[in-house]
Amino acid sequence: MGSTVQGQSPAAERERKMKQISDDIKSGSLKQVYLLYGEERYLCRQYREKLKSALCDEGDTMNTHFFEGKNINIGEMIDLAETMPFLAQRRVIFVQNSGLFKAGGEKLAEYLADLCPTTFFVFCESEVDKRSKLYKAVAAKGHAAEFAVQDEATLKRWVAGVLAKDGKKIRESTVLLLLNKVGTDMNNLQMELEKLSCYCLDREVITDADVEAVCTTRVTNHIFDMVDAIANKQTERAFQLYYDLLTLKEAPLRILALIARHCNQLLQVKELKTKGLDNRSIASKIGVPPFAVNKLASQASRFRTPALRLAVTQCVEAEEAVKSGRMNDKMSVELLILNVLL
Questions:
Q1: Could you read off the pLDDT of 186-235 as tens digits, one per residue?
Q2: Cross-strand pairs, 130
Q3: What 3 state SS string does 45-113 have?
Q4: How many whole angstroms separate alpha carbon 38 and alpha carbon 224?
Q5: How far apart are the two ends of the chain, measured CA to CA in Å?
Q6: Does the chain have fewer CB atoms within 10 Å around its N or its C terminus?
Q7: Residues 6 or more apart from 193 whose CB is under 8 A from it?
Q8: Region 327-331: what's the mean pLDDT?
């Protein structure tokens, strides 16, 4: 059930497994267990709602149950799963962000092997360990589908489709500006598209100026600009961007973590480029959209490899200094900016 079709790319395999859920719903041949997992929360939520509509009678609160978080009582869940549905065909249990696919799911895995025939489970998790007993139990009994960050082409089509429903059009270059400004998280994109539609109420075509006027720049863009300023030895601008983030109520330790992540991505891109890998391969290895690799590669080219390695080390040291209480969190980022500039 959980095997990959031979010859298919990971993206094609993910697409196939997503389509399988839709096919199950259309045919009425629903599995007893579904696992929806991955970084793309918007799609996870969309498919969870599709399964809810297919599995549950509208308004039935007697046979529809929700568990969320890492303190779920598994014994209580199994007792509920063993209870026959009341005046309904099924009892459906939704489980979200339990962490059980990383650790602690062994008891539930054993139960799923002999699941009550009238009980159905739908799991939604951000991360899973495919080696875990629970993942293997789901793959054997039902269907597991990954919802990864969508590629550039898919996001372009989706953005155009969402706006078309509101009678709006958008140029491809403007979609790229939007993705670079707000990111690829579809949940966030959905909210930004609603803002754009409202802002352009009396106009058909959404422009670059509209995106710049109403869309919220993601925090990682500020980090990119900050590292850009560091590369150009623009001390004042680097600090101004840092203080802007503090004004936006971003915690210094989170800013530090984002700088570390960004420096690590620059180092990886630089090293992978020297090995001759193309953008798509690099994107897959470091977990970013392919269109983001160009920007990272351009920025990385302005740093020498040893300098990037040192920057990553300095980020780790700064975080350790804060967590050990040897340094104030706000000051640690200030010193890091100065050290990298030097």
A1: 988 999 999 999 999 889 999 999 999 999 888 888 888 888 888 888 88
A2: none
A3: HHHHHHHHHHHCCCCCCCCEEEEECCCCCHHHHHHHHCCCCCCCCCEEEEEECCCCCCCCCHHHHHHHC
A4: 25
A5: 55
A6: C
A7: 159, 162, 163
A8: 91
Nearest to 267 by CA among 314, 222, 303, 231: 303
- DSSP-assigned states of every residue in 148-178: PPPPHHHHHHHHHHHHHHTT-EE-HHHHHHH
Angle between the 252-274 and 279-286 helix axes, to the nearest 10 degrees?
140
* Contacts with 243 (C-beta within 8 Å, 6 or more apart), sequence order: none
Q: What is the mean pLDDT of residues 313-331?
A: 92
Other Cβ atoms less than 10 A from the Cβ of 76: the count is 10
Cβ neighbour number for residue 69 with a 10 Å cutoff: 10
CB 268 within 8 A of CB 309: no
Torsion, Cα of 275, 278, 279, 285 (10° steps): -60
CA gyration radius, the chain: 23
* Matching residue, tokens 């800013």: 255
Best CA proximity match to 104, nearest among 147, 139, 79, 69: 69
Strand, helix or coil for residue 122: strand
* Residue 254 CB coordination number (10 Å): 12
Which pLDDT tens digit goes with each residue over 66-94?
Answer: 999 988 999 999 999 999 999 899 999 99
107, pLDDT greater than 50: yes
Beta bridge partners of 52: none
Residue 302 has pLDDT above 80, yes or no: yes
